[in-house]
Design a protein that fits this description.
The complex is a heterodimer of chains A (89) and B (578).
Chain A lengths: L1 E7 L8 H11 L5 E6 L2 E4 L3 H5 L8 E7 L3 H13 L6
Antiparallel strand pairs in A: 1-4, 2-3, 2-4
Helix pairs in contact in A: 1-3
Chain B lengths: L1 E4 L1 E4 L2 E9 L16 H26 L5 H14 L2 H14 L3 H17 L4 H4 L2 H16 L13 E5 L4 H5 L6 E6 L7 H8 L4 E3 L4 H4 L5 E5 L4 E4 L3 H16 L2 H5 L12 E6 L5 H6 L5 E5 L2 H6 L5 H14 L5 E4 L26 H7 L1 H15 L4 E5 L5 H21 L9 E5 L2 H5 L2 H4 L4 E4 L1 H9 L17 H17 L3 E3 L7 H10 L3 E4 L4 H8 L4 H11 L5 H15 L6
Parallel strand pairs in B: 3-4, 4-5, 5-6, 9-10, 9-16, 10-11, 11-12, 12-13, 13-14, 14-15, 15-16
Antiparallel strand pairs in B: 1-8, 2-6, 3-7, 7-8
Helix pairs in contact in B: 1-2, 1-3, 1-6, 3-4, 4-6, 14-16, 16-17, 22-23, 22-24, 22-25, 24-25
The chains are: A alpha+beta (89), B alpha/beta (578).
């Protein structure tokens, strides 16, 4: 099963080390293969380096995509984390 | 010869061999790796990753008690980055394809990551390249099995030229072996600057690319008065600087120290020292200080590495008061927040820190910390001539609130039966234009004024001195500053309270005539500046100084003011009394 959802990074400091860590930790809890896409760059959502290298500043548009049995739940949970601005503000 | 311009943060001239601490603190082995040794290289790299992750874990345990959770979380993120399989695969790929050592591969891969981040325009993202640099250094440390090049390798007197120095490094500076300091980054309030002034080491910061422009072994000159770093000076320049060093060395400081600080026509001006740590008092007294006009207590944070307890502070203040005998000691409460470094204290992320929750505002936002400091100062007041100074007051209400904190601390101590001086003179720093423009209401509430010119200039001229693009606009000789100073002195005279000045302007002999002439009776400065200001003061007359101040107040711009004051100091100089 494949699920995907678009999201905008809305916290002031963008996807820096701490929120990237939260994102990767959460993604790691799901069995599905998950990617985070920004334009032409695709990152493995379970690799903090790849997520950081998207260099996603505030306002960037990302696509969360999961492929696997728990794809739907994974995409929902990750989308919520980003939409809640990582509880930063 | 090359001359780099930075920010002068600690006066004096130093000439020596350069010891460079660049961004790259390791000598990277560049040999080619034989394909037969590829597996061994991979094993070495994998082991280094495990070791570096363990180090981070240990560091986290050590810091957990003193750092806020959000900083600890950064260490977690760093550990995740270190152990990321993508990083490992990239490094191993380089070792295999390019036959480079694991060290070289780490440098190449992480430099590429850093470039990706640095290319982003958003400053919050591009600054994350700093995280990558941290990880690179940690991995290299684990790979090479030894610490990075640092202070402890220095064996003979050198000038340190560094990209930047960590707080631990600055605290390890040995005055016998480090004669000058130059850094790429930093401002006048950075820890490097504070330590340089504390140890009387000439220093220039904010040079931008000094650590790249200077090669180890180059001869360099630090001009801590003009904010210059001269690399491989030609012989004429070198001679000029050697000559400039001589008068200071040849001047009989001992003789001058015992002479009074008076003008030729008998006007006395008290010359005080600005200090960061009690240990500097001996140097201040040796330079002839009449007391300490500014004890910047935030250094206690830096030295302790955590919020200093009431007891630690009490002993520091007591030690300072004892060393001074009965001479006055003005203790300024913490000036934290903004760009100043505070270890173990919660910080706010602010868009505009110099207008944000810093200094007295920060103290009152952290009442437990502020009360502990006030109790320590009040307790020490029973044992010396101590005065209390609040920084960055901007409104009368704020001042009243701060004074209420003092009353409260006094009551707490009385309840505990601890002795406190009957009366502790309390004053404010005049460094925000709101106070400088309308000082009378404040003068009615305090026992003294102390003008902090560094911040007053920054706020009045809307110029941040550490910003290289606008630093040239920062000028104490700006007519607006001169007028504000006059306004402050006049308000103090009306309220019959003493007024002193403790910014860098006070230690610059060019302004001695103006400040004396406009009516300041106390100048407080970095201790090494005292002899030359005293020499200037003893060579001028109060009558001429008043006339020069009046004339300077009429001039149109800073350049004219500076030229006029320099000329006046030279022209009006009578043969100094010996």
């Amino acid at each position: 099963m494949v699920a995907e959802k678009a999201v905008t990074i809305d916290n002031k400091y963008g996807l820096h080390a701490r929120p990237a860590m939260q994102f990767v930790e959460l993604a790691g809890k799901y069995a599905s293969a998950i990617t985070l896409t920004r334009g032409a760059k695709v990152a493995d959502a379970k690799s903090i380096m790849e997520v950081l290298m998207l260099a996603a500043e505030k306002g960037s548009e990302l696509l969360i995509r999961a492929d696997g049995d728990d794809a739907q739940e994974a995409v929902e949970a990750l989308w919520k984390l980003v939409a809640s601005k990582f509880d930063e503000e | 010869m090359e001359i780099l311009k930075g920010i002068a943060v600690s006066p004096g001239v130093a000439i020596s061999t350069a010891y460079v601490l660049g961004r790259e603190r390791y000598a990277i082995p560049t040999r080619a790796v034989d394909p037969a040794d590829f597996e061994a290289e991979v094993v070495r790299f994998r082991a280094a990753v495990v070791k570096a992750a363990e180090e981070l874990e240990a560091l986290k345990d050590r810091l957990r008690s003193t750092l806020a959770d959000r900083y600890v979380a950064i260490l977690d993120a760093h550990r995740a980055m270190l152990t990321d399989e993508r990083l490992s695969q990239d490094v191993i790929g380089r070792v295999r394809d390019e036959r480079v050592t694991a060290e070289r591969a780490v440098v190449l891969v992480l430099a590429e990551y850093a470039r990706t981040l640095e290319a982003v325009e958003d400053p919050y993202i591009s600054q994350r390249a700093g995280d990558i640099f941290d990880i690179q250094q940690r991995l290299l440390g684990a790979l090479m099995g030894r610490r990075a090049a640092g202070m402890s390798d220095i064996t003979e007197p050198v000038v340190i030229v560094a990209h930047e120095l960590t707080p631990t490094e600055t605290l390890a500076i040995d005055r016998a072996r480090v004669v000058g300091l130059a850094t790429d980054g930093g401002g006048s309030a950075s820890h490097t600057s504070i330590v340089a002034r504390a140890l009387s080491i000439p220093a220039v910061v904010g040079l931008g690319r000094a650590s790249a422009a200077v090669v180890a072994g180059d001869t360099v000159v630090i001009d801590g008065d003009k904010g210059l770093l001269v690399v491989n000076p030609d012989s004429a320049t070198l001679e000029r600087y050697r000559a400039a060093q001589k008068p200071a060395a040849a001047a009989p400081a001992g003789l001058l120290r015992d002479l009074p600080a008076v003008t030729v026509d008998g006007r006395a001006v008290r010359l005080m020292g600005n200090i960061e740590v009690p240990e500097e008092i001996s140097s201040a007294l040796a330079n002839g200080a009449d007391g300490i006009g500014l004890f910047r207590t935030e250094f206690l944070f830096l030295r302790a590495g955590h919020e200093p307890s009431e007891e630690e502070q009490f002993f520091a203040y007591l030690q300072a008061a004892r060393m001074l005998g009965g001479k006055p000691l003005v203790i300024r409460t913490f000036d934290l927040g903004g760009e100043k470094l505070a270890v173990g204290v919660k910080h706010y992320v602010e868009r505009n820190p110099s207008l944000g929750c810093r200094s007295i505002r920060f103290s009152m936002e952290n009442p437990a910390m502020f009360r502990a400091q006030l109790r320590a100062i009040l307790r020490a007041s029973a044992h010396g001539n101590i005065r209390l100074l609040f920084p960055m007051i901007s409104s009368v209400e704020e001042l009243k609130r701060a004074k209420a904190f003092v009353d409260e601390a006094r009551k707490e101590l009385a309840a505990r039966g601890v002795p406190v001086a009957e009366k502790i003179p309390t004053g404010i720093m005049v460094e925000v234009p709101s106070v400088a423009v309308a000082p009378d209401a404040f003068a009615a509430q305090v026992d003294f004024f102390s003008v902090g010119t560094n911040d007053l200039i920054q706020y009045t001229l809307a110029v941040e001195r550490v910003n290289e693009h606008v630093a040239w606009l920062f000028n104490p000789a700006h007519p607006a500053i001169l007028r504000l100073l006059k306004n402050i002195v006049e308000a103090a005279a009306r309220a019959r309270i003493p007024v002193s000045i403790c910014g860098e302007m006070a230690g610059d002999p060019v302004f001695t005539m103006f400040l004396t002439g406009v009516g300041f009776e106390e100048l407080s400065m970095t201790p090494p500046a005292i002899p030359r200001v005293k020499r200037t003061l003893r060579s001028i007359s109060y009558k001429d100084a008043k006339a020069a101040a009046d004339r300077a107040l009429q001039l149109e711009n800073a350049r004219e003011v500076t030229a006029f004051l320099m000329e006046s100091v030279t022209a009006a100089a009578k043969p100094p009394l010996r």
